[in-house]
Specification:
9 strands; globular; 3 helices; alpha+beta; 32% strand
Length: 168
Amino acid sequence: MQEPLDKVRSGRLAPETISVRLLLPDTSAPMAVPVLVNDLRDEAVLRERARTIALTNASGIAHSVEGLAELGLVQSASVRVKVHKASSLFKLYILNRSEAFFGFYPLRERSLTIDGDSHTFYDVTGKDTTLFHHSAGPDDASLGSQYVQQAQVWFDSVWTTIAYERPV
C-alpha cells in the first residue's frame, strides 16, 4: 500500500482524491487464529497482540493517506476501518475497481514470550505473502475482469453486512 502513496508524494501519481477502506478481524472475541498449538485454545494475549499489529498498520496507512491531503497533494483523503468476526486468512487489495492483488496468509507455528509467559501458537504470516495481480480489461467476460468484479462484490458484501465501524 505504501508504494502508490509514495508515488503520490513524489508527484508520479496525481489523484484528486484517495479513499481507503480497510476490513480487519475483530480481535475482541476468539478467532480461528491465533490459537495455541497444543489444544487450539484461544488466548486473549495473542488476540491483543494481533489487535496491536492491525491497529499499528491501519494507523500507519491513515497517517500516510491523510498526510497527502495535509500537504495539498490530493484534494481529499479518507480512511475508514471496519471489523468483522472472521479471521483473516488472506489479503486482498482492490484499486479503483480495476485491479486486484490477492494472496493467502499461510499459517505457521510461532513461539513468543508475552508478559513473561511463553506461548506456542499458530498465526498467520502476512508480510511475505505472494500477491497475485488481476486486472480488469476492456472485456467484462475476461478472467481478469471477472476476478476484479467478484473481489469487489465480496468486499462490498462484507463491508455492508457483517462489518462494523471501529476507530483507528
